[in-house]
Write a structure and sequence with these properties.
Length: 408
């Protein structure tokens, strides 16, 4: 049985409260954390008691304040979308003194139907499934038509309904960004991800912000813009802490990877990178990894692949091989992309140790899978590593065998 969909998911994953509104305590706690204010600061700003603030943000508190002016003050102080507090159709500026102007009254927002949103959710899920398990081309074809329909509905929507469609567009843009990245169209990939970041930031949806910045950091790493990647990775962590475990784990994994590229020989930075990886692994082992709609794969294999690559770059080869062994032990058969990534990571570590035979063997396996599921970016990485092997050992028989496979 599918889980219920609530209209307020466009802003955050809050549980239900009263009168078709989200749980007040969860909303207040979320926006308080989002604002960076302490409960003491909020109490002082609103001239309320800290005890009252604590009661408001309790997850058990599902009831809205009965006094409308208090809701208005909350919405203003924490920049909460008015509809989440039952203030739809109220212009907060007109309530500045707690009294509405003549003729202004709460109304009913038009929202997208559950069926409509679940349709787009299903189409998005199909696209991601094809992306992870099939080919980039099939993934693109599966979502093009539904995205066109979504964009048309977005253009004609207003209010919360427009926000609902925009949040869905943000998630489609993230998929399109990865498809273009794998097609080696980095400029278009970055354009899509920038659009996703803008939408997510406007909606103040922590999970959308975290996932959009996460995927943009990945693009920056592809472009070798490691400083920009680390900036995005560090920026997303507060939003990751407001997110569910699958996305949170992946965000800490990205922080570890981005920091790893800039750690160099500085032991303190290496240990900071490893701490991020270890936190990601802890979430992967003990967290609730039930799908959260971000379509990231928080799993031990990918975490330890990237940890191994960082360790290899620091010449900590024994630790790198240990990490790769854990990655292979936890590899799921259906995640063919991770199989390619694991083989490439193994090849890089072998090459760093001048083990050309083992490197070429791993590259040969990676090349076969990359061609089978149309991953030109991975194929290009195979070729780059082959060039290094050829430079180091031009007469090696393993290099010759790999060369024949590359040109076939």
């Amino acid at each position: 049985m599918s889980k219920p969909y609530y209209w307020w998911y466009v802003y955050g994953q809050f549980g239900p409260g009263e009168h078709n509104l989200p749980c007040l305590g969860e909303v207040v706690a979320y926006y308080l954390a989002f604002s960076g204010l302490s409960k003491e600061e909020l109490a002082r700003d609103l001239n309320w008691t800290e005890r009252y603030i604590e009661m408001l943000k309790s997850s058990r508190n599902k009831d809205m304040p009965k006094l409308l002016p208090r809701r208005i003050l909350l919405a203003k102080a924490l920049h909460i979308p008015p509809i989440l507090l039952g203030l739809s159709s109220i212009t907060l500026a007109e309530w500045s003194d707690g009294t509405p102007s003549a003729g202004v009254a709460p109304g009913t927002e038009v929202i997208a139907s559950t069926e409509t949103m679940q349709f787009y959710e299903k189409m998005l899920a199909v696209g991601w499934e094809l992306y992870y398990t099939s080919s980039v081309q099939k993934a693109a074809e599966s979502v093009d038509m539904s995205f066109h329909m979504l964009s048309t509905e977005f253009a004609h929507a207003m209010g919360v309904k427009k926000d609902q469609f925009d949040a869905m567009r943000c998630r489609f843009y993230q998929l399109f960004s990865l498809i273009e990245r794998d097609r080696m169209n980095n400029e278009k990939s970055l354009e899509y991800e920038n659009e996703a970041v803008v939408i997510a930031s406007r909606l103040k949806n922590a999970e959308l912000i975290a996932s959009a910045l996460l995927r943009r950091a990945r693009i920056y790493i592809r472009l070798k813009e490691y400083v920009l990647a680390l900036k995005d990775a560090e920026t997303l962590l507060p939003y990751a802490d407001l997110s569910r475990d699958p996305l949170k784990g992946k965000c800490y994994q990205m922080a570890g990877e981005a920091q790893g590229y800039l750690a160099g020989n500085t032991l303190a930075l290496q240990e900071k990178s490893l701490a991020y990886f270890n936190k990601a692994a802890q979430i992967a082992r003990k967290g609730n990894l039930e799908p959260d709609g971000s379509f990231v794969k928080t799993d031990l294999t990918s975490i330890y692949i990237e940890k191994a690559e960082a360790l290899t770059s620091w010449k900590r080869y024994g630790e790198a091989h240990n990490a790769l062994a854990i990655a292979r032990k936890n590899l799921s058969p259906e995640l063919t992309r991770w199989e390619v990534n694991l083989l490439l990571a193994e090849a890089s570590t072998y090459l760093a140790q001048d083990d050309v035979e083992s490197c070429c063997h791993s590259l040969s396996e990676a090349l076969g899978i990359a061609r089978a599921i149309s991953l030109p970016g991975k194929e290009e990485r195979v070729y780059r590593l082959y060039e290094l092997c050829k430079s180091n050992a031009p007469e090696h028989t393993a290099v010759s065998r790999l060369e024949k496979q590359l040109v076939s």
